[in-house]
Design brief:
- The protein is α/β, with parallel strands linked by helices.
- Helix content is about 55%, strand content about 15%.
- The chain has helices at about 15-25, 35-45, 50-60, 70-75, 80-85, 100-110, 125-130, 140-155, 165-195, 200-205, 215-225, 235-250, 255-270, 280-290; strands at about 5-10, 25-30, 45-50, 60-65, 90-95, 115-120, 120-125, 135-140, 155-165.
- It has a 6-stranded parallel beta sheet, with helices on both faces. It has a 3-stranded mixed beta sheet with strand order 7-8-9.
- The longest helix is centred in the middle third of the chain and has 29 residues, at about 165-195.
- The structure holds nicotinamide-adenine-dinucleotide (NAD).
- Nicotinamide-adenine-dinucleotide binds near residues 67, 75 and 237.
Length: about 300
């Protein structure tokens, strides 16, 4: 009989991930506080639960994919949450990007009931979720990681245990520093080219194969040139990640000056009504300061 997996949080990332589990032959029970994405999953063969608790009553492995620390705490520890329905021996795999200290707190609460937990945030964006090529960075016990490896491999490509609970989140924060700084640098570069009267598309094509080339450049450069800022990864979620980075840096006394600067830019973009735009819209902030718009043809 196919293994039954619980999936909570069917947003940009969770919906395609849950669909990939169905395609791979898992039986999937889903829940989201919003009804509409559940309908779509049910059409694809998933079972609909009426609460996070009910998901956990029906499944021994439960994946959560919600926005931030508060939502993870609510979904797992809150009223009608996963922990109310979970049995001893069940495993919660929180794939949301949240503060590592909160992952440790949730895991400690789960442990009181004999429930195991992995923190397993992902990178690769919506395309990675759709194509099941996500990089998955995991914190937790080796034996629990081993038990969940095949499941995680179904929604991802590279699945790596980086340490104890919370280590997945620390790895994700490191990832988010690099992605944010890269998008900001790419934005500065294209704005400079535009104002200098050099076609930004030609600049992009000239440098993409050199040292400046990167996965971020390949993903976000075409979006900027197409003026397509549909999320992808929302500005408000990246601001949240950088807030978690800066809080963690403060706790550890690690200065993170560039991260702090980009986080301020993301805050300004939220004030400009861009909270739900893709993070490639960091370009707009640089364009606003330079009074220029990047476009093909220069
Ligand atoms: P999203 O806002 O599109 O989806 C989140 C979903 O969680 C929503 O459908 C929401 O209704 C649901 N939800 C919130 N609270 C809930 C609760 N208590 N119980 C059940 N469902 C609840 O966000 P997303 O883009 O899918 O991102 C999810 C997580 O993955 C975030 O932590 C994000 O930082 C991370 N992430 C996103 C991307 C990306 O490109 N979108 C890439 C890597 C990692």
């Amino acid at each position: 009989m196919a293994e039954r997996i619980g999936f909570i949080g069917l947003g940009i990332m969770g919906k395609p991930m849950a669909k990939n589990l169905l395609k791979a032959g898992y039986e999937v029970t889903v829940y989201d506080i919003v009804g509409e994405p559940m309908e779509e999953l049910v059409t694809d063969g998933a079972q609909r639960a009426s609460s996070n608790k009910e998901v956990a009553e029906n499944c021994e492995k439960i994946i959560t994919m919600v926005p931030d620390s508060a939502e993870s705490e609510m979904a797992i520890l809150g009223p009608n949450g996963v922990l109310e329905g979970a049995r001893s021996g069940s495993i919660v795999i929180d794939m949301s990007s949240i503060a590592p200290l909160v992952s440790q707190k949730i895991a400690a609460e789960c442990a009181k009931k004999g429930v195991e937990m992995l923190d397993a945030p992902v990178s690769g964006g919506e395309p990675g979720a759709v194509n099941a090529t996500l990089a998955i960075m995991v914190g937790g016990k080796q034996e629990i990681f081993d038990k969940c490896f095949d499941l995680m491999k179904t929604v991802g490509g590279n699945v790596v245990l980086t340490g104890d609970i919370g280590a997945g989140g620390i790895t994700k924060l490191a990832n988010q520093i690099i992605v944010a700084a890269n998008i900001e640098a790419l934005s500065e570069a294209l704005v400079l080219a535009q104002k200098a009267g050099v076609d930004p598309e030609k600049v992009f094509n000239a440098i993409r194969g050199g040292l400046a080339g990167s996965t971020v450049m390949e993903a976000k450069g075409p979006m900027m040139l197409d003026r397509n800022f549909q999320a992808g990864f929302r500005i408000r979620l990246h601001q949240k990640d950088l807030r978690n980075v800066l809080q963690t840096g403060q706790e550890l006394n690690v200065p993170l000056p560039v991260t702090a600067l980009v986080q301020q830019m993301l805050g300004a973009l939220i004030n400009d009504g861009e909270a739900d735009a893709d993070h490639s819209a960091i370009l707009h902030h640089l364009e606003g300061m330079a009074k220029v718009e990047v476009k093909r043809g220069g």
